[in-house]
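User: Structure please.
Assistant: Input sequence and predicted structure:
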Amino acid sequence: MGSERMEMRKRQMSVQQESAAGGTAPAQQGQPGQANPRGSNACCFCWCCCCSCSWNEDRDERNRKASYDVKEGTADCEDCPKPTLEEVRSWGQSFDKLMCCPAGRNSFRQFLRTEFSEENMLFWLACDEFSKEANKSAIEEKARVIYEDYISILSPKEVSLDSRVREAINRNMQEPTLHTFDDAQLQIYTLMQRDSYPRYMNSPAYKNLLNTLSEQSPES
């Protein structure tokens, strides 16, 4: 009986020792394993933070310039009187007549905003203003701003241009002139004329404006 108890006691002690050894080994093995992920994560975290911060700074700088261009260069709405019934009717005759009228550009621009293509009008307006720049020392800076806002593939307001025009702009940006964006401006003008203008003429925005002015006209 005593020998059986002794044997059971030895077995219990053996099990306890094995359990203790098994608990210690994973802990000891786990420490180096835990240290490596921390080091790896720390490196990745620092790298991501550095890149992220740098990218965010560049993005914030681009957004600041873009905001300046919209607020200072091409205001949300051009200063112009309310359009007359005759003017609104003339918009339906040709895209040129629409674009020659400040009120027409405003109305069309608001329509483009609903189609998420307002950057086309913003680019055209920026180029139109740029072509009138008389200060030669300001040409290079303004050309760079237009490029970063509407030509660069990093810009959220990049316009759609074919490779030929884009390559020509890249070459001309080495020594920009008042004609640097002429081909691009014409291409975007043609794009709006063929693509967006027909939809605008059939849109509720144009029809409602035309109907409202018709009802207010003394002729009606």
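The chain has a mean pLDDT of 78.
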